[in-house]
Every structure is written in structure tokens, then in C-alpha cells.
Amino acid sequence: MSRAGSWLRERVPVDGASLRELTNEPVPNHLKKWWFALGGTPAYLFVVQIATGILLAFYYQPSAATAYQSVQYITHEAAFGWYLRSLHKWAATLMIAAVILHQMRVYFTGAYRRPRELNWVVGMSLLMCTLLTGFTGYSLVFEQLSYWGATVAANISDAAPVVGGFAKQMLLAGDGYNDRTLSRFYILHAAVLPTTIVLLVIVHIAFIRMHGVTELEEIDESASAGNRTPEASDGASTHFNFFPDHLLTELMIGLVLMTLLSALACIFPATIGPQADPLTTPEEIKPEWFFYVSFRWLKLFSLTFAVISTGFIIGAMFLWPWIDNFLRRVTGIKEISVYIGIVGTFLLIGLTVWEAVATH
Predict the structure, then answer these.
(1) Cα dihedral angle (41, 47, 49, 50), rounded to 10 degrees?
(2) Which residues pair with 26 in a beta bridge?
(3) DSSP letter string over 3-50?
(4) What mean pLDDT do residues 21-47 have?
(5) How far apart are CA 141 and CA 70, in angstroms?
(6) Alpha-carbon distance 215 to 225, whole Å?
(7) Do residues 250 and 40 lie in contact, with contact meaning Cβ atoms separated by under 8 Å?
(8) How far apart are CA 7 and CA 10, in angstroms?
């Protein structure tokens, strides 16, 4: 064993001390709280998505003639297919929720402000890619609601000025749902979007390494004071080591998520509805929960206004670091974004709940 260890150390000259020196960057005390360290949660769930997605890809056949039957086989016949599909579904649901919560945490703590504006744009891009991944994955089942949901989404895209027609054709691989649409969704879901997410995550982490984690002084000082012993000096540290302290925290979160995912997969397994029928429109068409807001918004206004206003809101969110700076200078209110965010959060929750309980 000593000879093998020497051989390995010679070729991979990394030991525990050098690893700690490389990774042991002090991070603020507020990261000990899970809701301030939400970035690792979607990353873990994304890894689960990749692993289960690869296993499901062995059986899935992305064509209108075979997609539904292949999902049926996975769900009812393949060994543990129902479990893998359920894990994939619930990991996607929790990942989308975690990314949304992470962006909300960054927003309400002002962690997007100078010099971190570009990282906020990267985070918003990750959110959009995550939502698109959820949409394309839902459409692959080729059941009634997924088929008509994709059709409605394409028609909504068509209503966008200038780029609407092009966006619809790119999404459906033609002017309408056709034999090439599912394979287009599959390529987007299994290759284009995951690759884009990986690249964005690399850039996101690089920015964090360059700028460091945002300091929340009041919270860090409060946490430090709570942990301070009578013998401690007034200059008690408001930071702790990334390795192994924060890494162990992330591993514990991973174990909790693994248990939660397995429980959800067993208690609420993924189901499959009726096969897609282009000639029969369902009485009620509803998207996945993360698009409830957009769907309800479309029902409240005309199609053109709803699409343009949605695009305006998304564009404003991408540019929010600069909008926030402008509003603070004009109004003189330091935390005006918090008040706007509270109103926006209640609006999002209200529209989501409204669409969830509405019968049509």
C-alpha cells in the first residue's frame, strides 16, 4: 500500500494540507444558515437530474410514434423505471423552486449590487434556462396536457413582436407541431440546455471566487455575538472556513435532499395521462406550476399586451442592478427594491394560487 501511495502521490502531488490551503477560503458566518446558501441546493439537484436523465435516456424514444409508449414502458415495466422517473420529476420541481428562492434571496439582500451586477445577469440566465428545461422535459411525455401545453406556448411565442414567428419555428421545428418537434424538444432538454447551464454555473462560480461572497455585516455580527464566549475578544471572527466546515454543511444538505427526493418519489410517484390527440382539445389546459403566473397573466389581459408586458418584466429583472441604482438615486430611499420586491412576491404568489385553484 505504501508503494502504491508513493506512486500516486508522485503523479498527483496533492495532499490534505495543500488541498486545505487551496480551498480554505473564509466565508461569512451567515452561510451557516441554509437559506443563505441556496446556491448549492440546485447544483446538487442538477446532478441528480443529469444522473437520472442519462438512465431514462436508455429507454426514451423521441418521436411522436414512440415517445408515449416508451414513457409507459419506463413507468410500468422497466425495473425501477417508475422510481427513476419520479426522482427526475421531483428533482426538477425542487431545482426550479431552489433557483427561484436563491434569486429571491440575492434580490432581498441586495447581493446583486456593484460590483456583482454581471453575476446577477448570469443568475437570471440560469433561472430562464432552468424554466425552459422544465418546460421541454414536461413536453417530452407526449400526453394530452404536455402536447397542448407546448402548442399553446408556441402560439404565445408567436404573439411576440418581431421575433415571435422565428421563436415559434425554432421551438416547434416548423410552423406547427410536427414529427420533428419532439426530437427538437429532446435535443434542447438533454443537450443544449444542460450544457448551457453547466457553462453558466462555471461563470457564476468564477465571479463568486473573484468577488467573494457578499458580506451581510449585521447578520454576521449578530451570529458572531451569539456564538461568542465571555473569554472571547470584541474582535471575534465573522467568518468560518470553507473546507471542511462549509463543505460538510453542503454534504448534510445533500443527504437531506436525497432522503426527501426518495420519499417524494415513493409517496407521490410520477404518473402518465392520456396519449396526445391533436384532434381533441382538452377541456382544461394547465402548464406546470412554475408557469401558473404567466398562464393567469395571459387570461387577465389580451394576448399581445400579456406577452409584451411579460417580456418587459423579464427584461427589467435582467437589468435590475442598474434600475435599482437609478431608483435609489432618484428617490433617496436606500432599500426601495425591498418594497418593490415585497409587492412583486405577493403578486407572484397570488397569481400562482389563483391559477392553481381556478377550474378554467
Answers:
(1) 160
(2) 241
(3) HHHHHHHHHS---HHHHHHHH--EEEGGGGSGGG-TTHHHHHHHHHHH
(4) 73
(5) 9
(6) 16
(7) yes
(8) 5
Separation in Å, CA 301 to CA 132, 310, 349: 23, 11, 18
- Per residue, what are the HEC states of 209-224? HHHCCCCCHHHHHHHH
Q: Which three cell numbers stand for residue 44?
A: 446538487
> What are the backbone dihedrals phi and psi of residue 275, each rounded to the nearest 5 degrees, phi first?
-65, 150
pLDDT of the residue at 104: 94
The residue type found at 246 is: H
DSSP E strands: which ranges in the chain?
26-28, 239-241
Q: Answer yes or no: are the C-beta atoms of 204 and 46 closer than 8 Å.
A: no
Q: Which three cell numbers stand for residue 106?
A: 440575492
Least confident of 6-10, 170-174, 286-290: 6-10
Domain extents in the chain = 28-213+239-279
pLDDT tens digits along 175-203: 888 989 999 999 999 999 999 999 999 99
The CATH number of the structural domain formed by 28-213+239-279 is: 1.20.810.10
Regarding predicted confidence, which is higher, 284 or 18?
A: 284
- pLDDT class of 33 with cuts at 50, 70, 90: low
Residue 336 is classified by DSSP as: H
Write down the pLDDT at residue 248. 78
Give the integer Cα–Cα distance in Å for 37 and 102. Answer: 8
Q: Which three cell numbers stand for residue 346?
A: 405577493
Angstrom distance (rounded) from CA 197 to CA 191? 10
pTM above 0.85, yes or no: yes
Are 96 and 134 spatial neighbours (Cβ–Cβ below 8 Å)?
yes
Q: What is the mean pLDDT of residues 300-323?
A: 94
Query: What is residue 234's predicted lDDT score, i.e. its pLDDT?
Result: 43
Q: Which residue has the cell 413507468?
A: 75
Examine the pLDDT at 220 and tell me if it is beyond 60.
Answer: no
Distance CA 332, CA 330 (A): 6
d(C-alpha 184, C-alpha 164), whole Å? 18
Cα separation, 310 vs 300, whole angstroms: 12
| Listed range (15-19, 123-127, 268-272, 351-355) with the worst mean pLDDT | 15-19
